[in-house]
């Protein structure tokens, strides 16, 4: 399906990816001016833990759990000072609590041993933390102001395909395709723009093409 949208962009004479990406970002930046990470955090450590907890659940769900969690666990050592099952109970509502507790405790250990208890901002350091895959690392690095990649979640994947910016399904390949056409200065904000556009306008089941600011740039517009 993604492949046909790239071809469809050519068929509809919408211009090349490199030509469309500028207006796409500019229009979304106006429409989704408030687009930002939906997780609530006050420190680099809280950011890292929030993003780790957000796997397989919603940001809203994470935000329900973290106020009490961050009140109790303030430093990497605090996550190791309690028995594993206590941390599991404290993050239970985010789902996959056993794996997440194990990953968080492993990460805290590495932060203490390798990084002086601080959250690193380089992607290559972040991915060495237990349970921190490339997507999590990309989100954290971008929020810390050291964007080194483009976050590809379910919304970014769907929007990139619908807009004919990629022919691929695999998130790593989609990220590579986006990196080729998106100016580096926009790597951090593009995912937020696409995520909020995806939530508010380009719904997975029922895209509101009639209200979409990208309609004339989009090869999958239902009005085309
Ligand atoms: S025109 Fe429709 S399919 Fe294309 S981005 Fe907008 S809402 Fe989504």
Quick summary:
The protein is an all-alpha fold and 224 residues long.
Describe the structure.
- The protein has 224 residues and is an all-alpha fold.
- It is 56% helix and 0% strand.
- The protein has 12 helices and no strands.
- It has helices spanning 2-11, 17-31, 44-53, 59-72, 76-80, 84-90, 97-114, 123-126, 134-143, 154-162, 171-181, 189-200.
- α2 packs across α12, α6 packs across α7 and α10 (154-162) packs across α12.
- The radius of gyration is 19 Å and the shape is elongated.
The low-confidence parts are none
Q: Write down the overall geometry.
A: elongated
How confident is the prediction overall: mean pLDDT? 94
Number of helices: 12
Largest sheet: none
- The helix fraction, in percent, is 55-70%
- How far the N terminus sits from the C terminus, by CA atoms, comes to 17 Å
Strand content: under 5%
Hetero groups in this structure are: iron/sulfur cluster
Structural class: mainly alpha
How would you spell out the order of helices and strands?
HHHHHHHHHHHH
**Counted beta strands:** 0
Helix and strand topology:
Layout: H1 2-11, H2 17-31, H3 44-53, H4 59-72, H5 76-80, H6 84-90, H7 97-114, H8 123-126, H9 134-143, H10 154-162, H11 171-181, H12 189-200
The structure holds iron/sulfur cluster.
What keywords describe this structure?
224 residues, mainly alpha
């Amino acid at each position: 399906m993604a492949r046909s949208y790239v071809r469809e962009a050519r068929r509809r004479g919408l211009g090349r990816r490199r030509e469309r990406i500028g207006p796409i970002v500019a229009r979304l930046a106006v429409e989704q001016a408030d687009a930002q990470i939906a997780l609530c955090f006050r420190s680099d450590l809280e950011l890292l833990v929030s993003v780790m907890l957000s796997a397989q659940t919603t940001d809203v769900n994470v935000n329900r759990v973290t106020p009490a969690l961050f009140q109790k666990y303030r430093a990497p050592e605090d996550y190791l000072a309690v028995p594993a099952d206590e941390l599991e109970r404290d993050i239970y509502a985010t789902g996959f609590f056993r794996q997440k507790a194990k990953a968080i405790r492993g990460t805290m250990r590495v932060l203490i041993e390798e990084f002086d208890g601080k959250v690193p901002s380089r992607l290559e350091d972040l991915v060495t933390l237990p349970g921190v895959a490339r997507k999590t690392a990309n989100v954290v690095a971008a929020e810390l102001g050291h964007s080194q990649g483009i976050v590809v979640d379910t919304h970014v994947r769907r929007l990139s395909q619908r807009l004919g910016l990629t022919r691929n399904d695999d998130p790593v390949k989609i990220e590579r395709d986006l990196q080729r056409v998106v100016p580096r200065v926009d790597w951090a904000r593009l995912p937020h723009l696409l995520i909020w556009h995806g939530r508010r306008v380009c719904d997975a089941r029922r895209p509101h093409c009639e209200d979409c600011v990208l309609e004339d740039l989009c090869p999958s517009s239902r009005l085309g």
